[in-house]
Specification:
The structure is a single chain. The protein is of the alpha+beta class. The chain has a single domain, classed as Archaeosine Trna-guanine Transglycosylase, Chain: A, domain 4. It is built from two helices and seven strands; from the N terminus they run E-H-E-H-E-E-E-E-E. The strands form two sheets. It has a five-stranded mixed beta sheet with strand order 1-3-4-5-2. A hairpin with a 2-residue loop joins strand 4 and strand 5.
Length: about 90
Protein backbone atom coordinates (compact mmCIF):
# COMPACT_ATOMS: atom_id res chain seq x y z
CA UNK A 1 0.00 0.00 0.00
CA UNK A 2 1.20 3.52 -0.74
CA UNK A 3 0.70 6.51 1.53
CA UNK A 4 0.17 10.15 0.74
CA UNK A 5 -0.43 13.04 3.12
CA UNK A 6 -3.43 15.32 2.74
CA UNK A 7 -4.29 18.65 4.36
CA UNK A 8 -7.42 18.56 6.57
CA UNK A 9 -9.67 20.37 4.08
CA UNK A 10 -8.88 17.86 1.31
CA UNK A 11 -8.71 14.87 3.68
CA UNK A 12 -12.32 15.35 4.79
CA UNK A 13 -13.55 15.52 1.18
CA UNK A 14 -11.48 12.49 0.20
CA UNK A 15 -12.61 10.40 3.15
CA UNK A 16 -16.30 11.28 2.65
CA UNK A 17 -16.09 10.43 -1.06
CA UNK A 18 -16.85 13.96 -2.24
CA UNK A 19 -13.42 13.91 -3.91
CA UNK A 20 -12.39 10.24 -4.35
CA UNK A 21 -9.00 11.03 -5.86
CA UNK A 22 -5.72 12.78 -5.25
CA UNK A 23 -3.63 14.87 -7.64
CA UNK A 24 0.12 14.44 -7.27
CA UNK A 25 3.00 15.95 -9.19
CA UNK A 26 5.22 13.23 -10.61
CA UNK A 27 8.66 13.11 -9.03
CA UNK A 28 10.98 10.64 -10.72
CA UNK A 29 12.89 9.92 -7.50
CA UNK A 30 9.69 8.96 -5.63
CA UNK A 31 9.46 5.14 -5.76
CA UNK A 32 5.74 5.27 -4.95
CA UNK A 33 5.13 6.28 -8.56
CA UNK A 34 7.09 3.26 -9.83
CA UNK A 35 4.87 0.99 -7.74
CA UNK A 36 1.69 2.73 -8.92
CA UNK A 37 2.57 2.64 -12.62
CA UNK A 38 3.73 -0.98 -12.49
CA UNK A 39 0.43 -2.06 -10.95
CA UNK A 40 2.12 -3.46 -7.83
CA UNK A 41 0.16 -1.17 -5.54
CA UNK A 42 -3.59 -1.79 -5.45
CA UNK A 43 -4.42 0.32 -2.40
CA UNK A 44 -3.77 3.88 -1.30
CA UNK A 45 -3.71 5.25 2.24
CA UNK A 46 -4.42 8.94 2.79
CA UNK A 47 -3.09 10.50 6.02
CA UNK A 48 -4.38 13.72 7.55
CA UNK A 49 -1.37 16.03 8.02
CA UNK A 50 -2.66 17.41 11.32
CA UNK A 51 -4.51 14.61 13.11
CA UNK A 52 -2.61 11.67 11.52
CA UNK A 53 -6.00 9.98 10.95
CA UNK A 54 -5.88 7.78 7.88
CA UNK A 55 -8.03 5.70 5.60
CA UNK A 56 -7.25 3.12 2.92
CA UNK A 57 -9.07 2.60 -0.37
CA UNK A 58 -8.76 0.37 -3.42
CA UNK A 59 -7.18 2.18 -6.38
CA UNK A 60 -9.54 2.16 -9.37
CA UNK A 61 -7.71 4.37 -11.85
CA UNK A 62 -4.39 6.05 -12.54
CA UNK A 63 -4.48 8.96 -14.98
CA UNK A 64 -1.29 10.69 -16.07
CA UNK A 65 -1.52 14.17 -17.52
CA UNK A 66 1.70 16.02 -18.29
CA UNK A 67 3.69 15.92 -15.01
CA UNK A 68 0.60 15.13 -12.91
CA UNK A 69 -0.76 11.84 -11.64
CA UNK A 70 -4.43 11.52 -10.65
CA UNK A 71 -5.02 8.53 -8.39
CA UNK A 72 -8.69 7.60 -8.02
CA UNK A 73 -10.32 5.12 -5.68
CA UNK A 74 -13.65 3.54 -4.89
CA UNK A 75 -15.37 5.24 -1.98
CA UNK A 76 -16.34 3.11 1.02
CA UNK A 77 -19.82 3.53 2.49
CA UNK A 78 -21.12 2.87 5.99
CA UNK A 79 -23.55 0.09 6.58
CA UNK A 80 -26.90 1.37 7.76
CA UNK A 81 -27.16 -1.69 10.01
CA UNK A 82 -24.00 -1.55 12.12
CA UNK A 83 -22.10 1.59 11.10
CA UNK A 84 -19.00 -0.26 9.88
CA UNK A 85 -17.36 0.93 6.70
CA UNK A 86 -17.81 -1.28 3.70
CA UNK A 87 -16.87 -0.99 0.07
CA UNK A 88 -19.72 -0.56 -2.37
CA UNK A 89 -21.35 -3.90 -3.03
CA UNK A 90 -19.79 -5.71 -0.06
CA UNK A 91 -21.57 -6.90 3.04
CA UNK A 92 -20.43 -5.77 6.47
CA UNK A 93 -19.83 -8.53 8.99
Amino acid sequence: MIKFKSIPEMFDKEKKGVKPNTLRKFVSSDVRFDDIYSGIEKEITIVNTETKEEFTRKITDITVWKEWCIISWKHAVKSEVNGKEKKNGQKCL
